[in-house]
Amino acid sequence: MLWGCWLVANICMWMNDVAGAWMMTSMNVTPIWVALIQSASTLPVFLLGLPCGALADILDRRKFLIFTQIWIAFIAIILSLLVFFGNLSPIMLIALTFCNGIGLAMRWPVFSSVVPELLPKSQLPSGLALNAVSMNTSRVVGPLLAGAIIASLGSAWVYALNAVMSVVSAIIMTTWKREKIANPLGREKLWSAMRVGVQFISQSSHFKGVLIRIAIFFFSSTALIALLPLVAKSLDGGDAGTFTIVLACMGLGAIGAAIYIPKLRMMYSRDQLIIRGCILQTIAMVIIAFNHIPIITMVCMCLAGAAWISTANTLSVSAQLGLPDWVRARGMSTYQMAIMGSSAFGAALWGQVATMTSVPVSLTLAALAGLLGTFLVNHFRPDAGLEDDLTPSHALIPPTHPKPPQVGHIMMTIEYIIDPKKSEAFLLLMQESRRSRLRHGALRWELLHDVARPERYVEVVEDESWNDHLRRFDRMSESDVTIRDRKMAFHTLESPPIVNRYLMESTASSVLH
Predict the structure, then answer these.
(1) Is 463 domain-assigned?
(2) Which of 102, 106, 345, 54 is nearest to 215 (CA)?
(3) Whether this model's pTM surpasses 0.70
(4) DSSP letters along 19-39, please?
(5) Model pLDDT for residues 480-489, shown as the tens digit of each residue
């Protein structure tokens, strides 16, 4: 049911993009205005991705998803009415496309986090590939359907159909019997949830590598989508139908390639697969840039679609496997932010380049920039694979308190007595501990060294509240337990390290007053 709703949602997205791009093209504006439609649809995901991801992690995902469908239907109704009455200007079209993008920004983190919730880890790559098939099936169906409606009835009916389909999807989603397990610690605060999401990503070398690669790929490849209406118009006999067909060919290529992705993943490493996808994308874009024969452009669009899905799916799987469940929506929202931010910036940049030079020059420069960027990041930041075992662990029992403090920061200190001869190895290990604590949401981490007793070290961890302190116990993975055991191995006393917890009165009093 959810996969079907995802398919319908993506069809609506592509129908909206096709209608908007072609309407802007028909207004006889410069190339930068046409490219800005792509920027307007993707920029909201970049600007609002993190708060939307945080909301998806702390709210009921079912209700949140239904709300996003209603939002998109409302925007589609406004667009339909404006087109019906002939009151849609270029600026208004961009503004409403941006508002539609807000709905996408709210929707994507939820869909991204639902797949691992429904499937076991062993089936996750196949599930994500199936979602990619949905996206690319919609890339075929959406443009063809929109093109047929535009040619026969007009763009207003595209938006009207979008509104109907979004409402129907929302109604179907009400039948989703999702079991929501309430957290005994309650919901996280929005700002705190956003902070923790950023901290997790900043302390994950693996995830940052994924973000860099996906941003480079979409920064260059978005030029093809953003300038495609102008490419289609320049083809022999090019019109709205040509535009929808060449766009649909990209989806067909992606669907065909999706079948072979499991085999390709067995043959090549992640970075090898990405660089091959970028090479294929570059070849396709350069040929499309200087070609005027429709059939050749269609074949190259199929190749571009194959390159798109092989790269995007490979990096999507890599991102999902690097995220624990408790921060998954926030992590995937950041992944989408990287895609949409680079797409928005790339569309505006390559549109301006096309305005100053020509569409072929802009497409060629974009293709070469993407290929060069991918080679450089693979050389200077090669994939080291997953660094941590993210399997949840409940080895440590959280502390209990008859009257836990309701306000104020909590400071925990852990005292280690180690052999001074092993201090260098201990300090290296404590940097791993620092990354672990910050990934789980600690506000601050310090390591104190007693100047009078060289063997004595004190680890200091500050949390925003008592509940946030307890949350870190729920977030511990097998890798975190391994780090703890390694720290204990350095402790020379028979008794365990002394642990103390303090309420920081200055923070508590500032809240009360």
Answers:
(1) yes
(2) 345
(3) yes
(4) HHHHHHHHTT--HHHHHHHHH
(5) 889 999 999 9
